[in-house]
Specification:
By secondary structure, the protein is α+β, with helices and mostly antiparallel strands. It contains 3 helices and 6 strands. It is 27% helix and 42% strand. A hairpin with an 8-residue loop joins β2 and β3.
Length: 135
C-alpha cells in the first residue's frame, strides 16, 4: 500500500472512532472518500491531497497536504463549525504505524467556512499537513 492510502485509512479510522463526532454526524458511515448522490447531511468527505518528498539523507519520507470537507444543510453555520471543531480534535496528535507507513505527525494548517449557494449547504474546508516515512 502507498503512504497516501495508509494515511487516509488512519484518518478515516480516527474520525469514525470519535464518538462525539459520530454523534454530530448521525452515524460513522457519513465519513466518506467520495460523495454519492442523495447523501444525507451532515457528512465529511476527503478532498484533494498532495504529496511532496520529505526524505532525509538516510530515510525516505513524504509530506502530505490533506483536505477534508464537512457539509451541513442546517439553517446556520453552527452545525458545520461544530463538526469541523470535532474533526480537528479527533485528528489531534494522530501518529503511529498504519500498514507500511509511520505517521510522524498530522497538524492542522488552515480552515475556512462558508455557505455554498449552488449546493444550498454550509461547507467547512480543513487542511492538514502530515509527515510520513516507511514503518
Amino acid at each position: 500500500m502507498s503512504a497516501a492510502h495508509d494515511l487516509q485509512a488512519a484518518i478515516v479510522a480516527a474520525l469514525k472512532a470519535d464518538t462525539e463526532l459520530v454523534a454530530l454526524l448521525g452515524d460513522a458511515d457519513r465519513v466518506l472518500d467520495r460523495v454519492p448522490p442523495g447523501r444525507d447531511f451532515p457528512f465529511i468527505a476527503i478532498g484533494r491531497t498532495s504529496i511532496r518528498d520529505w526524505s532525509t539523507d538516510d530515510r525516505t519520507g513524504g509530506e502530505h497536504l490533506v483536505t477534508l470537507r464537512c457539509w451541513s444543510r442546517a439553517t446556520s453555520r453552527a452545525e458545520v463549525l461544530a463538526v469541523a471543531e470535532r474533526m480537528t480534535a479527533a485528528l489531534e496528535g494522530l501518529t503511529g504505524v498504519r500498514g507500511d507507513t509511520r505517521i510522524v505527525s498530522l497538524e492542522p494548517v488552515s480552515s475556512d467556512h462558508g455557505y455554498e449557494p449552488a449546493d444550498r449547504a454550509w461547507r467547512a474546508t480543513l487542511r492538514f499537513r502530515s509527515l510520513t516515512e516507511p514503518a
